[in-house]
Specification:
Elements (H helix, E strand, L loop, with lengths): L1 H17 L6 H8 L3 H14 L4 E5 L2 E5 L6 H4 L3 H16 L3 H17 L2 H17 L14 H12 L2 E7 L7 E11 L5 E6 L6 E4 L3 E10 L8 H6 L10 E7 L4 H5 L8 E4 L5 E7 L2 H9 L5 E5 L1 H19 L1
Antiparallel strand pairs: 1-2, 3-4, 3-7, 4-5, 5-6, 8-10, 8-11, 9-10
Helix pairs in contact: 2-3, 5-6, 5-7, 11-12
Length: 326
């Protein structure tokens, strides 16, 4: 029990040292899964250990942080944490996400180089055992394009609020030069730049593997007021963006257990029916990509709405049958 309390106290110290704006008492309690009174006692205990803890007025509450960080003694990772970092880099690498794999590899090297030699030697056997006992199952699918130079320029434009110019080898006029306001990056089966073009405020997606001659312009590129990348992503099933519709899926009893543990969309609701089936409802665009996904459910799912999704599924099934009959 004492060990668990000490571990929680150390976890809170790390949280306060890693937060630039600090944490409120309610945020501390939520992060640690404890009550507010317990969070207050832990804060007071940390104030005794770290007298330089800061209190920041943030009406109607206060925030707390440890501005000078923690000594390396408190920051030594364990074998499980290092193995998770190594596995994440390897998963990116096997999926073709070379730029992000390289970034995590550099982070791993920095963490290891910051550790004292005795700590590295002590962790080495456990780390090796964990790495040998775990493997990554790579799902089949396209390997996303990741060019470090392209990503670097896109990120430079996003963080610097600058416009971006590139030749786009896609769309109806391949090779046309575009000037856009970059709004974010989407990583998935393919990687996309989200940006608005010209005077339009409507976000569009541009595949990164079709960008060439990428240049950051010395022109301000401000996102539309109130734009949220998370909200933009939530509009669609996957990447494709078109009309947002109300989707209702009837998952039959033989697929109910799988459906209850499945995330179709961030806005979904599920309702168990008397016969053991499940109704899934959400709002999204991208009916073609949703139809492709529903292929994998076979006879476990019936489309209730919208009609456009039913038509899309029928069209895709007809194309597949025709191809195989031919």
């Amino acid at each position: 029990m004492r060990h668990e309390k000490a571990a929680l106290l150390l976890e809170l110290a790390r949280a306060l040292a890693s937060s630039a704006e600090g944490l409120t008492l309610d945020e501390m309690a939520a992060r640690l899964g404890v009550g507010r009174r317990t969070a207050e006692r832990m804060r007071d205990a940390l104030r005794d250990l770290f007298p330089h803890m800061e209190e920041i007025e943030d009406p109607p509450t206060r925030r707390f942080r440890i501005p000078a960080g923690l000594d390396a003694l408190f920051q030594t990772p364990d074998a499980e944490e290092l193995a998770a970092l190594h596995a994440a880099a390897e998963q990116f690498r096997q999926a073709g996400a070379g730029a992000r794999a390289a970034a995590l590899g550099r982070l791993e090297a920095k963490v290891l180089s910051a550790m004292r030699a005795p700590a590295r030697r002590r962790l080495a056997p456990d780390l090796e055992a964990v790495l040998q006992a775990e493997a990554i199952a790579v799902a089949p699918g396209p390997r996303p394009f990741e060019d470090e130079a392209v990503l670097r320029r896109v990120r430079e434009a996003i963080t610097g609020l600058r416009r971006l110019r590139f030749a786009y080898q896609g769309g109806s006029t391949p090779g046309r030069v575009r000037e856009v306001t970059p709004l974010g990056l989407l990583f998935g089966r393919s990687n996309y730049l989200v940006a608005s073009e010209g005077e339009s405020r409507e976000p569009r997606t541009w595949r990164l593997d079709r960008l060439s001659e990428v240049e950051v312009l010395d022109m301000a590129g401000l996102p539309p007021p109130g734009f949220s990348l998370a909200a933009f992503v939530d509009r669609s099933f996957g990447i494709y963006q078109d009309a947002v519709e109300d989707v209702r899926l009837h998952v039959l009893p033989q697929g109910a257990d799988e459906a209850l543990g499945w995330r179709f969309h961030s806005t979904q609701t599920t309702e168990i029916q008397p016969d053991g089936s499940v109704m899934v409802a959400f709002r999204a665009s991208g009916m073609r990509e949703l139809a492709w996904h529903l292929f994998s459910w076979g006879d476990k799912v019936r489309i209730v709405a919208p009609q456009r999704l039913k038509d899309m599924m029928s069209e895709q099934l007809a194309l597949a049958i025709a191809a195989h009959q031919a």
